[in-house]
Amino acid sequence: MQSWQLKLVGYGAVLVAGGGFGLGLGRPLPAQAAAYRTVATQKIAKHAYHRKGQHGAVYNRAHTKRVASLRAYPHTTWYATQKATLRHGHAKGVYLYVANASRSVKGWVWHGYLKRGKAAFHLKYAKGAVALDANTGKVVWAKNANHARPIASTSKIMTLYLTLKKVHSKSGSWHSIVKTNSRGLIAMGKNSSVGGFRFKAHHKYTVKELYYAAYLDSSNNAAIALGKWVAGSNAKFIRQMNAQARAWHLGHAKYVSASGLENSDLRRYGYAYGTANANEVSPKDLAIVARHLITKYPRVVVDGKIGAKTVNGQLCYNYNNLLPGRKYYRASLNVDGLKTGYTPLAGYCFVGTAVRHDKHRVITVVLHDENEFTETRSLMTHAFAAKEMNY
């Protein structure tokens, strides 16, 4: 006496005959050969599943319409809430009613194509990413964490660190005057695509003013001016950036720019440096730089929550869209920093940080992303739930 089992192979149905030793032969059963009929249905406790392999599909209950191929959802967690036995011709099979987290895709799938448990966490768009426990320095999650790539204006995190380092030394202060009369810096301020902050001839800018311009508004000329104030020249400051990276034992960090602009843009303003075109830093090393900044100079997470600030009559707008009142804000995350970045070469980059109710802080980095705030939000949520951050 043979037992028969209905299975979906690829997009079609297969009737498999199995013997007592688990061996069987299969033959395709045309979809139109017989209608699917429900033998029994029951509600079940909600359980998480993910696909077991490359095969299978989600169908409507009558199996007249394929809703989705499981092949297209390699990192999706499906939540099952019903179980049904369906008959197709002489064969019967157990199916689960499943839906993804947003319930945008739902339907019935043969239970054998699913495996119990949530799918592994995944970021679809970021080419490199990391989540770092700011308290311990441990990596909680990573994607290409040690692969250096262009980081755009997130480079300013190192510039801010070195600026604050001098401010807190005996050689500088918040009220120190910064030279801003360079032709190149003035010209950059007049070009919104590379400057963002106009240096007015009659005004003497302080370190504190340019700190806010570079941090909140991501002003490139303000960052370069700060670097020159710190080290005496643009070239000396970039060498200082690299020296600091070496002192922290960052093996995947190389700087050629104080602002994050590439040399292909800086050259016309007289601020190109070195032979490489761009700063290239790995997600992990960038997170470590951010950790040093936050740990040594915690005021940056206070300033990081400022949505906008007027500096000498100019509005410096914080482009962190995870802040309160912004499109991607989520109260449970309590994001209070840190730095956005974009160039066509680097793509959208974001270094974020958030603190949990128990004061546990996470630092996240996403590089060359298409949905940097959505993916940062997902990464922060995943990191806070990870066992590494719950000890």
From TrEMBL:
Per its UniProt record, what InterPro entries does this chain match? Beta-lactam/transpept-like, Peptidase_S11, Peptidase_S11_N
Q: Record keywords: Transcription included?
A: no
List residues of the Peptidase S11 D-alanyl-D-alanine carboxypeptidase A N-terminal domain.
Answer: 126-370
Q: Which SUPFAM superfamilies match?
A: beta-lactamase/transpeptidase-like
Q: Which family does it belong to?
A: Belongs to the peptidase S11 family.
**Protein's recorded name:** Peptidase S11 D-alanyl-D-alanine carboxypeptidase A N-terminal domain-containing protein
Residue intervals passing through the bilayer: none
**Superkingdom to which the source organism belongs:** Bacteria
